[in-house]
């Protein structure tokens, strides 16, 4: 429960329901129903990316995921696994 609405514009959802919904749920409702100002566009990169931010946010998640992690890292937690399954750490800890 969030105890607050994340709407920045109009909403057709009752205020009490808005206050109980997680922010992620509110952001996935169309802005015509509940305007959070979110466009639904976001990058799915978990690490470094050579792809411009605007492009990352415009393309579907599946397209981002097929790019090699050396170009656009979408590996879980920034840990890349190569095709043989061995783990390569992309970052120094």
Structural features, described:
- This protein is of the alpha+beta class and 93 residues long.
- The chain is elongated and about 45 Å long.
- The longest helix is centred in the first third of the chain and has 6 residues, at 15-20.
- It has helices at 15-20, 23-28, 53-58, 61-66, and strands at 79-81, 87-89.
- The relative contact order is 0.13.
- The protein has a two-stranded antiparallel sheet.
How are the secondary structure elements laid out?
Layout: H1 15-20, H2 23-28, H3 53-58, H4 61-66, E1 79-81, E2 87-89
Antiparallel strand pairs: 1-2
Runs with pLDDT <50, length 5+? 81-87
The major β-sheet equals: 2 strands, antiparallel
Order of helices and strands: HHHHEE
Helix content: 25-40%
Q: What Rg do the Cα atoms give?
A: 18 Å
What strand line-up does the widest sheet have? 1-2
Helix-strand category: alpha+beta
- Mean of all residue-level pLDDT scores: 75
**General form:** elongated
Please supply descriptive tags for the structure shown above.
6% strand, 4 helices, two-stranded antiparallel ribbon, alpha+beta
Short précis:
The chain is an alpha+beta fold and 93 residues long.
């Amino acid at each position: 429960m969030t105890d607050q609405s994340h709407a920045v514009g109009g909403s057709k959802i009752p205020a009490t329901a808005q206050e109980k919904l997680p922010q992620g749920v509110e952001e996935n409702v169309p802005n015509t129903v509940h305007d959070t100002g979110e466009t639904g566009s976001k990058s799915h990169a978990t690490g470094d990316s050579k792809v411009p931010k605007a492009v990352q946010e415009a393309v579907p998640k599946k397209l981002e995921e097929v790019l090699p992690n050396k170009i656009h890292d979408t590996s879980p937690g920034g840990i890349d696994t190569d095709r043989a399954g061995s783990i390569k750490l992309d970052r120094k800890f």
